[in-house]
Design goal:
Helix content is 29%, strand content 21%. It contains 23 helices and 36 strands. The strands form nine sheets. An eight-stranded mixed beta sheet has the order 29-30-32-31-33-34-35-36, sandwiched between helices. Strands 2, 3, 12, 13, 14, 15 and 27 form a seven-stranded mixed beta sheet that branches. Strands 8, 19, 20, 21, 22, 25 and 26 form a seven-stranded antiparallel beta sheet that branches. β33 (701-706), α18 (708-722) and β34 (730-734) form a beta-alpha-beta unit. The longest helix is centred in the middle third of the chain and has 18 residues, at 421-438. It is globular and about 95 Å long. It starts with a strand and ends with a helix.
Length: 868
């Protein structure tokens, strides 16, 4: 079984039909009130909406002025240029610009589910270190710094290139891979760049974004030719849920207020105006054009500007609409010696400086092969082998102005591209480098001759640039984050002077980032979601099961990215395994060795213990101070049913119970080989029935387990369902062992990383449990990859990304999701099998336990009870 699997297949017809039916139902009964309203489904808004929708207790409304994302030019990523000028574009136009010889250039932006990420070239460019450190300085918040943002990038990425653990992440919702189908001309191009003294890097978003310049193959969000939009990565997987309504063709016209508190939005949808209230917040993610327009037409902006159109003032913020930035781009074109297939996706990306004294690169070059049709869409007079050069750290600033108070009144855009002489100089030097590269001898086997601009004198070349420069559609900075008088939002993205209103999109950038802006907008969305969760004390989000994402894990050992404590845990586990690997150990000795694992965890403060007898089954109560005695975690310990007792999990379960505010009952179920299958499940059922007999309500019980205990927890729920008994409120499974066939690839791939388990140990456990029972390894009663999972309660799954069971846990999550189960999936960086025993010592484990506790509280208490 490959670890490169889809957690949810977005092409699965059953899921698609569920989405359609659910969204039709939600739209037909559109509510007048939601907890959160997110305006705009672009690269930031989709992240915010998706992250909030992960919490089933929140009602989220996502509004989008455009239509769906089903067009072939959206799905087929290489057709992106066909979207230019279509209904999937906002058709903005800048005012005539003297620095562009009086031309009025087009300023397209994405209009539809996914925003720009549904119509762009899908280049994943994180931004330079200097960008993010500048953001942090402007905001006065280190959470925006490069180091902080790098952690977010690693967490959200699912990197499918050569392992680079210092910079790249795996298992997140954002599929990224280096372009892998480059032409021979592309290899010659990179070799030619290197011949000019330009360093070539292993990937676009690692070391190169800390360097003074360099080139690489581009990072792309394209999989098997299909676009991986941010909307599909973050939102689509939740559209079958009742708590997320996605409303397309819904134009946000104004915000509504009580004093200076935003109460909701006014939208035009289905032929009429609707007013919808937001109980907690409105998040505006409409992009650098529409965000300031809606703000100003709602009364937030420069007082003088608003007074011109009779708009009542809510908050004077002169920075709204000011500070506009974009990347000006120029094209250099060569005729191909032999026809090359048109390909608007770049083969290479280069960042460089217009002068050596600069601290970071100020221009970028991308390469593509444009057909005549594609060239015409871009406003070029000729197609061919093309280098697109653009200024990525422009100094020119523009502004936006209203032309009237009504939503139909267009926005006036003074883009001011190339207004600053440093930008003109940078684009000139960029054009010179494009020509130097394209005319290299290394490219003569592929290129016949230069078409544009040709060998020109400096003044003539400067004229060409003014005649041909255009927007690269990376508009930003019209509602900037900062602390000066022209700032619109603070470091928490809250609009100054206004309550319950936040902005999350490219308009908040203090300056446009170095390179394409999709990836930084995703970070803005992630930061916004994190800030909202913290300020509203919401359940932390999980790593969701996304249809467009496959999870992949590194092979072999990796340099540690996490805490020293985690390294010590690995060494401790390794010492246990070394003792276990000695030949001729009897079962009693093996059990004694493994029983020492409880030493790994720290004693949870304020938790007491009491032994109990559950109709002949020994058990241990873990009782946190101030817990609710009517909420109980029924826990199944690990150990392959062979080696552990209830005491090994005692401390870790105490930590979880404390986080959940509940008691925990750890069963010391009968062990194999003395007691084989199904004795352990029978003991678990006995414990569950005992709790019910004691007056604990089924919905106030969560069944938890780790390793084989995770299997037993799910198996118990299946047994209860089959007997038509009341089901528990939730299942928490940590490092679950579900596949008795041991078929998943990570058993081999993570063999060097997992310091506790090995295939031979697992085979020994399996034999002890199942031999002589007549139970096959693929029997659905023990192999849950074959089980009927329909009708189970919500399940939360955790795994360490270094353990052997990664592949089967993800496969189980997929199957549970396909069966209609509400399932969420979390990983712990560099976690070993039994990582949970690091409770109280390892920061990554403590963070995971806090998330478990929040989730369990959300399941075992009603909203009303939690509020009380």
């Amino acid at each position: 079984m490959s670890t490169e699997i889809d957690a949810l297949d977005v092409e699965n017809e059953r899921f698609a039909q569920r989405v359609i039916a659910n969204q039709n139902k939600l739209r037909s009964k559109l509510r007048s009130h939601y907890d959160f309203i997110v305006c705009g489904s672009g690269s930031s808004g989709s992240v915010v909406a998706g992250r909030l929708a992960e919490n089933p207790d929140l009602n989220v409304l996502l509004l989008e002025a455009g239509g769906d994302d089903e067009a072939p030019s959206v799905i087929e990523a290489r057709q992106w240029i066909k979207n230019i000028g279509s209904e999937r574009y906002w058709q903005f136009k800048a005012a005539p610009n003297r620095w562009l010889n009086g031309r009025a250039i087009s300023l397209g932006m994405g209009k539809g589910l996914g925003g720009g990420s549904s119509i762009n070239a899908m280049i994943w460019a994180r931004g330079h270190k200097s960008d993010w450190d500048f953001f942090a300085s402007e905001a006065g918040d280190p959470a925006w710094s490069y180091e902080s943002v790098l952690n977010i990038y690693r967490r959200i990425e699912d990197w499918h290139g050569a392992p680079d653990p210092k910079y790249r992440g795996t298992g997140g919702p954002v599929f990224v891979q280096p372009r892998s189908d480059s032409s021979p001309a592309a290899h010659a191009l990179l070799e030619g760049m290197h011949s000019l003294g330009i360093p070539i890097f292993e990937n676009q978003n690692g070391r190169m974004m800390e360097a003074g310049g360099g080139a690489s193959v581009p990072d792309m969000r394209i999989r098997d030719g299909k676009r991986q939009s941010v909307f599909r990565s973050y939102v689509f997987a939740y559209m079958d849920r009742p708590n997320l309504t996605v409303l397309s063709h819904a134009l946000v016209t104004r915000l509504t207020f009580e004093g200076k508190r935003v109460t909701g939005v006014e939208i035009f949808w289905d032929g009429r105006t609707h007013r919808i209230r937001a109980g907690r917040e409105v998040i505006i993610s409409l992009g650098a054009m529409n965000t300031p327009k809606v703000l100003m037409q709602s009364g937030i902006g420069d007082e003088t500007e608003l007074r011109r159109f009779g708009i009542p003032l809510v908050q004077h913020l002169p920075g709204v609409g000011n500070g506009f930035q974009d990347h000006p781009v120029i094209a250099c074109v060569w005729e191909c010696l032999e026809p090359l297939p048109p390909d608007a996706a770049p083969d290479a990306v280069l960042f460089w400086k217009s002068e050596g004294s600069l601290a970071s690169p100020d221009f970028q070059i991308l390469q593509g092969v444009l057909s005549l049709e594609d060239a015409a869409k871009l406003g070029l007079p000729a197609g061919g082998w093309t280098l697109l050069g653009n200024v990525v750290q422009p100094k020119s600033r523009g502004h936006l102005r209203l032309t009237g108070p009504d939503p139909d009144d267009p926005i006036q855009v003074e883009a001011n591209l190339l207004w600053d002489q440093d930008d003109r100089k940078a684009l000139l030097e960029c054009t010179k480098l494009c020509r130097a590269i394209g005319n290299l001898d290394l490219l003569r086997p592929f290129l016949k001759g230069e078409i544009l601009p040709g060998k020109l004198k400096r003044t003539t070349l400067e004229g060409y640039i003014r005649d041909a420069a255009m927007s690269f559609w990376h508009q930003t900075s019209t509602a900037k984050m900062g602390r000066d008088a022209m700032s619109v939002v603070d470091g928490n993205l809250k609009v100054y002077g206004v309550e319950n209103l936040r902005i999350a999109d490219g308009s908040i950038m203090p300056r446009v980032t170095t390179g394409n802006t999709m990836a930084p907008c995703v970070i803005i969305g992630e930061r916004a979601a994190e800030i909202i969760r913290n300020q509203h004390q919401l359940e932390p989000s999980s790593v969701p099961i996304h249809g467009s994402n496959r999870t992949r894990h590194d092979k072999g050992g990796r340099e540690s990215m996490v805490s020293t404590q985690n390294k010590h845990m690995a060494q401790f586990f390794a010492s246990i395994t070394e003792r276990m690997s000695q030949p001729d150990l009897d079962l009693a000795t093996i059990r004694d060795v493994y029983e020492s694992l409880h030493l790994a965890a720290s004693e949870p403060e304020g938790v007491s213990y009491a032994e109990a007898d559950i109709d002949g089954v020994p058990a241990l109560w873990c009782i946190p101070a101030d817990c609710d005695p009517n909420r109980v975690l029924l826990h199944a310990h690990g150990g392959g049913t062979v080696i552990f007792s209830m005491h090994v999990d005692r401390k870790a379960v105490g930590h979880i119970a404390k986080a959940a505010g509940a008691r925990a009952l750890v069963l010391d179920y009968r062990r194999s080989p003395e007691h084989k299958f199904p004795a352990q499940i029978q003991d678990m059922e006995k414990g569950y029935r005992w709790l019910l007999a004691k007056g604990i309500r089924a919905e106030n019980i969560a069944v938890t387990g780790q390793s084989i205990g995770g299997n037993l927890a799910v198996s118990l729920a299946i047994e209860l369902r089959n007997k038509r008994m009341a089901m528990p409120g939730a299942i928490l499974s940590v490092s679950g062992w579900y596949d008795m066939g041991l078929t998943n690839d990570t058993i081999k791939e993570n063999a060097k990383n997992d310091k506790l388990l090995s295939r031979s140990i697992l085979e020994r456990f399996r034999e002890a449990w199942l031999d002589d029972t007549g139970t096959a390894w693929n029997d659905p009663r023990v192999n849950l990859l074959y089980a009927d999972l329909a009708g189970l309660p919500p399940i939360q799954l955790y795994y360490g990304d270094h353990e052997l069971f990664v592949g089967e846990i993800i496969e189980f999550a997929k199957r549970a999701k396909d069966a209609g189960v509400d399932v969420s999936l979390h990983s712990v960086p560099e976690g070993q099998h039994n990582f949970i025993l690091g409770a109280g010592r390892v920061p990554e484990v403590n963070k995971a336990i806090a998330q478990m506790g929040q989730w369990l509280r959300s399941r075992l208490w009603s909203v009303k009870e939690r509020a009380a």
